[in-house]
């Protein structure tokens, strides 16, 4: 699928807009399947409408499940006979890779950058349009990307970052490499922060979360900056519990999203090691075991969100974990609790949840792309030529979509 949108006439932005509208129709059609979270609902509202699917998911063996969890194409193939109208997702949740121009960096340039981060930075920098003039890096961390850009293009970079420690470390790295990249400690959400963009003409951001990249897009369009290269991330990290579409098409879409819906878009993680996957499974099983317990104790058949809990708690016993979670929720626990029973319930529910998640998994990339295209269309409305594509392989990061906008 060719993938560019020029601003101006609607015909020119037809690619992005057409794709957005098709994704929107797909997501609306299947919303009964992707909205409810199996983790929170022991029985899903769609089960009675899709009895054959429910039975087939329940009958999946562990090895079959693992194979479907890691292969989107196989997953859509497997689900399609049970879900009429799912098939188009195969074409719709894909965008082409952006053209890349790789270049060499001096020996040792990446020495202090973790391996996968360096590969992401390298790939991102290779997809940049030619930039002339100062660059603004948004939510820069240690500004690894800024230094890669400065090294490649010789342009000065101003990098904004909240964390003073990261700023200090990043500035030390810039001095060591003698690169004109300056980190400034700055809360980009604070009033007036956009003036820190100064005289920069181009903006870049690698993995800027929800409200942070919303502010970036506003800054770029208000200041009529010449270009933006953005890889958005964590669409759910927003002050508002409801999603506010960026583009007119988004506003007209009829798709109202909650923060939890947006979370689904970033649920996919890079394949963890077997040990990390087992730890995650155990955490989920224990949380679900506690969920079964709290439903019984409260006499309320509702999910009770429990805040994040330190890893060390999961190294103890299930009973201690439940005491900790109950404490957090100010829930009194009876002295005599059948811990093995609730722990087993947790593992049973974990097995079921991972199967019932599969229909959502088939649609989460489509949702992510909808969110990205909503941002891209907003930039097109503001007069930018916009391209959307992937800047790196998914195994490096599933957040591999980039919006390239040029005035
Ligand atoms: C996901 S990290 C990405 C960092 C870097 N771009 C990278 O890819 O390595 C997001 C960064 O945003 C920073 N951040 C969070 N809130 C911020 C804010 N309000 N203002 C500026 N930076 C912020 C965090 O400290 C963190 O370094």
Write out key terms for the chains shown.
globular, eight-stranded mixed β-sheet, 45% helix, binds S-adenosylmethionine, alpha/beta
Describe the structure.
By secondary structure, the chain is an alpha/beta fold. The protein has a domain at 115-266 and 380-406: Vaccinia Virus protein VP39 (Rossmann fold, 3-Layer(aba) Sandwich). It has 16 helices and eight strands. It has helices spanning 14-29, 31-34, 51-58, 62-69, 72-79, 89-92, 115-126, 144-153, 164-177, 210-222, 248-251, 259-264, 274-298, 318-328, 339-356, 358-381, and strands spanning 4-5, 135-137, 157-161, 181-185, 202-208, 227-232, 385-390, 401-406. It has an eight-stranded mixed β-sheet, with helices on both faces. α8 links the parallel β2 and β3 (157-161). α1 packs antiparallel against α16 (358-381). The two termini are 23 Å apart. Residues 6-12 have low confidence and may be disordered. S-adenosylmethionine is lined by residues 117, 139-141, 160-163, 166, 186-189, 206-207, 212, 233.
């Amino acid at each position: 699928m060719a993938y560019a949108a020029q601003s101006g006439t609607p015909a020119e932005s037809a690619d992005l807009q057409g794709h957005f509208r098709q994704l929107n129709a797909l997501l609306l059609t299947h919303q009964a399947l992707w909205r409810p979270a199996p983790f929170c609902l022991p029985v899903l509202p769609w089960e009675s409408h899709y009895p054959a699917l429910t039975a087939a998911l329940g009958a999946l063996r562990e090895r079959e499940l693992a194979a479907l969890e890691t292969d989107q194409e196989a997953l859509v193939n497997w689900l399609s006979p049970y879900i009429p109208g799912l098939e188009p997702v195969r074409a719709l949740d894909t965008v082409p890779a952006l053209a890349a121009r790789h270049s060499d960096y001096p020996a040792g340039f990446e020495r202090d950058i973790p391996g996968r981060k360096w590969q992401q930075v390298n790939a991102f920098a290779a997809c940049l349009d030619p930039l002339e003039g100062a660059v603004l890096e948004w939510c820069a961390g240690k500004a690894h990307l800024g230094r890669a850009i400065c090294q490649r293009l010789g342009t000065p970079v101003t990098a904004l970052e909240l964390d003073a420690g990261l700023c200090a470390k990043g500035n030390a790295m810039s001095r060591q490499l003698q690169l004109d990249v300056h980190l400034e400690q700055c809360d980009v959400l604070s009033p007036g922060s956009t003036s820190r963009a100064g005289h920069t003409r181009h903006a870049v951001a690698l993995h800027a979360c929800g409200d942070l990249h919303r502010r970036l897009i506003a800054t770029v369009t208000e200041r009529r900056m010449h270009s933006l290269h953005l890889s958005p991330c964590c669409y759910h990290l927003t002050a508002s519990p409801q999603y506010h579409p960026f583009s007119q098409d988004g506003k007209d879409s009829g798709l109202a999203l909650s923060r939890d819906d947006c979370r689904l878009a970033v649920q996919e993680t890079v394949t963890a090691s077997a040990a990390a996957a087992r730890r995650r499974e155990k955490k989920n099983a224990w949380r679900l075991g506690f969920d079964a317990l709290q439903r019984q104790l409260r006499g309320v058949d509702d999910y009770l969100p429990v805040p994040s809990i330190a890893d060390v708690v999961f190294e103890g016993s299930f009973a201690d974990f439940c005491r900790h979670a109950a404490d957090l929720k100010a829930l009194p626990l009876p002295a005599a609790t059948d811990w093995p029973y609730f722990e087993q319930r947790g593992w049973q529910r974990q097995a079921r949840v991972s199967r019932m998640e599969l229909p959502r998994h088939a649609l989460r990339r489509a949702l992510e792309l909808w969110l990205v295209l909503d941002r891209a269309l907003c930039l097109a409305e503001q007069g930018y030529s916009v391209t959307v594509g992937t800047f790196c392989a998914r195994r490096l990061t599933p957040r591999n979509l980039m919006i390239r906008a040029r005035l």
